[in-house]
């Protein structure tokens, strides 16, 4: 099936940003005097909005400490951490190929903030790739489906003509909540077994496999 609208998660789906997210969150937790966080703990919450991620990572954290952690995470991610963030190999060419298809529309649904997404759009000159986007701070965080519902309404696409692509159960569960087709990718953070619980149409194990099937090959 060729979908009229393809909605992508960002971190771990299009961009190889997981190592930077992990290192920044670990540094922020230490500076906020919460303590050490394992890489696995941080990877588990990637995709959620930042307040929701902190609440899940640090159960019982007090509001002032949570705000300190949030501030330090943002500082590291924007200015202090030099861990490279690149698109997964082949993403730029594959997106261009999809955009060349008549009436194809593309969107982003991400746990990033609007400021964060716009920053990476500008840094990578990728904002023009997408017809619309939603971030966790301007709607509801995943796995709530509000950002998907808003994208469908903005682009005037029925749910049966759209698909959500992501590397976490949060991506797939928000699509499942409104009956949208969903595709999992295994090169991000959640395991194939975990993704399978959300009953995706299929699971891709590489960028080439993902885009070849999205393109209908």
Throw out a few tags for this protein.
217 residues, alpha/beta, Rossmann fold, DNA polymerase, domain 1, 6-stranded parallel β-sheet, two-stranded antiparallel sheet, 10 helices, hydrolase, HAD-SF_hydro_IA, PGP-like_dom2, HAD-IA family hydrolase, HAD_sf
Please render the helix and strand layout as text.
Blueprint: E1 5-8, E2 15-16, H1 18-31, H2 39-45, H3 50-57, H4 63-80, E3 86-87, H5 91-99, E4 105-110, H6 114-124, E5 132-135, H7 146-155, E6 162-166, H8 169-177, E7 181-185, H9 192-196, E8 202-204, H10 207-215
Parallel strand pairs: 1-4, 1-6, 4-5, 6-7, 7-8
Antiparallel strand pairs: 2-3
Helix pairs in contact: 1-4, 5-10
CATH class type of the largest domain: Alpha Beta
* Distinct helical segment count: 10
Overall pLDDT: 94
Strand order of the largest sheet: 5-4-1-6-7-8
Stretches with pLDDT under 50, minimum 5 residues: none
What is the CATH homology-level superfamily of the largest domain?
Answer: HAD superfamily/HAD-like
What is the number of strand segments? Answer: 8
Shape: globular
What is the CATH topology descriptor of the largest domain? Rossmann fold
Domain count: 2
Share of residues in helices: 40-55%
**CATH architecture classification name of the largest domain:** 3-Layer(aba) Sandwich
Structural class: alpha/beta
Instruction: List SSEs in N-to-C order.
Output: EEHHHHEHEHEHEHEHEH
User: What's the main sheet like?
Assistant: 6 strands, parallel
GO molecular function: phosphoglycolate phosphatase activity
Keywords: Hydrolase
Protein name: HAD-IA family hydrolase
Organism: Vreelandella maris
């Amino acid at each position: 099936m060729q979908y009229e609208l393809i909605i992508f998660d960002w971190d771990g789906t299009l961009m190889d940003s997981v190592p930077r997210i992990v290192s920044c969150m670990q540094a922020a937790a230490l500076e906020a005097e919460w303590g050490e966080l394992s890489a696995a703990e941080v990877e588990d919450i990637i995709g959620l909005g930042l307040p929701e991620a902190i609440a899940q990572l640090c159960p019982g954290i007090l509001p002032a400490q949570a705000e300190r952690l949030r501030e330090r995470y943002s500082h590291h991610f924007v200015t202090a951490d030099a861990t490279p963030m690149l698109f997964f190999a082949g993403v730029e060419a594959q997106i261009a190929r999809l955009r060349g298809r008549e009436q194809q529309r593309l969107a982003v649904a991400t746990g990033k903030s609007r400021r964060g997404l716009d920053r990476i759009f500008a840094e990578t000159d990728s904002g023009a790739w997408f017809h619309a986007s939603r971030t966790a701070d301007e709607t509801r965080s995943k796995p709530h489906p509000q950002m998907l519902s808003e994208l469908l309404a903005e682009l005037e696409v029925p749910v049966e003509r759209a698909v959500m692509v992501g590397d976490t159960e949060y991506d797939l569960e928000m699509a499942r909540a409104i009956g949208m087709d969903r595709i999992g990718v295994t090169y991000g953070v959640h395991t194939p077994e975990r993704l399978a619980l959300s009953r995706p149409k299929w699971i891709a194990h590489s960028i080439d496999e993902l885009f070849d099937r999205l393109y209908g090959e």
